[in-house]
Write a structure and sequence with these properties.
By secondary structure, the protein is mainly α. Helix content is 70%, strand content 7%. The protein has a three-stranded antiparallel β-sheet with strand order 1-3-2, covered by helices on one side. It has a three-stranded mixed β-sheet with strand order 6-7-8, with helices on one face. The longest helix is centred in the N-terminal third of the chain and has 148 residues. It is flat.
Length: 521
């Protein structure tokens, strides 16, 4: 127990001595480090002072250089402005000198003008005095002459005017007579020259409108489909369109015969659609024909617009454009009406240009001169007067309206374009091969034949076939029975014999078809 106490005490004493020794060692080292730090700080301060002094000198030098540079630039700017001011002062002095000279010249001229004004006033006064004196002398002489002649001044003036008027009238009448005599000698020759030049410069077709159209097919196998079993397809097509379909040995062609161009066109377009579609049977034929009849009006408008564009005619009313398109499906004495109107328009433009008139207005009148022939409704007026009324209705130029109405001398011509349209119409219609009187009378006879049959009750449609040798009448099956259909055929034949003249005989076929249609839903 005592030994361990001694050991503990000895350990404590040893630790104390070690701590004292360690503290003395640390104290000595910290003094050394403090001295080294102070020495290092002093050296850093000295270096910083040296660097700061050098930087200060550099900045002072840089500031001096910048100051000197700015000073030189400022002096240069000042010198420039000073030079500009000196130049402007010199210019102002020069302007002042020139203005002074001009002012002196103006004052000199004003003085001259004042002197001239005084001279003119003096001269004017003397002239006024002389005028008054002259008027007094003249009035005295006129009064003396009036006393001598026994006439007043106004009466003498009237006599002189009458004498001059008679003399001028005599001379004018003589000159007019000479001009008219000269015109009579040259007018016929000049007119013939204009007409011949116009005809030579206008290329026209000499073919006339016929009553058949040719429908081309790719192969003869199609003919069998068009005819159908026991001819039912071709009969349906003829009944729907009112034309005659001729299928013969002509290679790759089918003939469509009919006097009405619209029916022929409907039949041609319907055949084209049916052949392209490939489905050819009576129900499909009726469907296609109905659609084609609706679309033919669009084609008419397209033809009218294309014609106006080709002729360079603009601003026509849409209804007039539609009438121009209808001309494509009308004929006059066998001559296609649209082709005739186009030809007349070109002839009118050429003649008007030769005579120095408005060629565009003349061309417009030439195209529209026969629009009265395509009016869909029956009218008692001649086609020229009807066409004039239509042109007035759609706000056409008065000269165009007069030319349309006067081209067959129904009204008086009031425009220079009117005789041009009349002459061009005669030229177009009188060409060799242009028209056929027989063709026009033939078409008229077929139309009268159809109208005669349509007048009977129960008749829906009527078509003249085979050049008028057959009349096919389609009746309403609900209102006409078989016995009435037979009687109707007889009545039509009797009326034709009494009212019409025709070569040979006419076959009247009354067709009564009963249909029952229902839909499965």
């Amino acid at each position: 127990m005592g030994e361990s106490l001694y050991i503990i005490i000895a350990g404590i004493i040893g630790l104390g001595i070690g701590a004292v020794i360690a503290g003395l060692f640390i104290r000595n080292n910290s003094k050394k480090m403090e001295e080294e730090a102070k020495e290092k700080a002093k050296s850093i301060i000295r270096e910083a002072e040296i660097n700061a002094e050098a930087l200060k000198k550099d900045k002072i030098l840089e500031a001096k250089e910048k100051y000197l540079k700015l000073k030189s630039e400022f002096e240069e700017e000042v010198n420039k402005k000073k030079n500009i001011i000196i130049t402007n002062e010199t210019k102002l002095k020069q302007r002042e000198q020139s203005l002074s000279k001009e002012i002196e010249q103006i004052k000199r001229k004003e003085a001259e003008l004042d002197s001239k004004k005084e001279n003119l006033n003096a001269q004017l006064h003397s002239v006024q005095v002389k005028k008054e004196e002259l008027d007094r002398v003249t009035n005295q002489r006129i009064s003396d002459l009036e006393k001598i002649a026994g006439l007043t001044k106004e009466e003498a003036k009237e006599q002189i005017v009458e004498m001059l008027k008679d003399e001028a009238t005599t001379k004018a009448s003589s000159q007019i007579k000479d001009i008219l005599d000269q015109a009579k000698l040259t007018a016929t020759k000049q007119a013939k020259k204009i007409v011949l030049d116009t005809i030579q410069r206008t290329a026209t077709e000499h073919a006339i409108e016929n009553c058949v159209s040719v429908f081309n097919i790719e192969s003869d196998d199609v003919k069998g489909k068009i005819i159908g079993r026991e001819g039912r397809n071709i009969r349906a097509l003829e009944a729907a369109t009112g034309v005659e379909i001729i299928v013969d040995d002509t290679p790759e062609a089918i003939i469509i015969s009919g006097f009405d161009p619209v029916r022929r066109e409907i039949a041609r377009l319907s055949l084209h659609r049916l052949v392209q579609d490939g489905r050819i049977h009576p129900a499909r034929i009726e469907e296609v024909v109905t659609k084609t009849e609706k679309n033919i009006e669009e084609e008419i408008i397209e033809i009218g617009e294309r014609t106006c564009i080709e002729l360079g005619i603009h601003g026509l009313h849409p209804e007039l454009i539609r009438m121009v398109g209808r001309m494509r499906f009308r004929s006059s004495y066998g001559q296609n009406l649209l082709q005739h109107s186009r030809e007349v328009a070109k002839l009118c433009a050429t003649m008007a240009a030769e005579m120095g008139l408005n060629a565009k207005l003349a061309k417009r009148a030439g195209l529209l001169h026969d629009i009265g022939k395509v009016w869909p409704e029956e009218a008692e007026l001649p086609h020229a007067i009807l066409g004039m009324e239509l042109a007035k209705k759609y706000k056409e130029n008065p000269e165009v309206c007069n030319a349309i109405g006067a081209h067959h001398d129904e009204i008086e011509m009031t425009s220079m374009i009117s005789p041009i349209v009349q002459a061009s119409d005669a030229i177009s219609g009188s060409r060799p091969g242009a028209r056929r009187e027989i063709m026009d009378s033939y078409i008229k006879r077929l139309k009268e034949l159809e109208e005669l049959a349509l007048a009977f009750d129960g008749v829906n449609k009527c078509f003249a076939m085979q050049a008028g040798r057959e009349l096919r009448v389609l009746v309403d099956a609900d209102n006409v029975d078989d016995q009435t259909a037979s009687k109707l055929s007889f009545d039509i034949s009797q009326k034709i014999e009494k009212e019409m003249q025709y070569p040979g005989q006419i076959k009247i076929t009354v067709i009564r078809e009963m249909r029952a249609v229902n839909y499965a839903k």
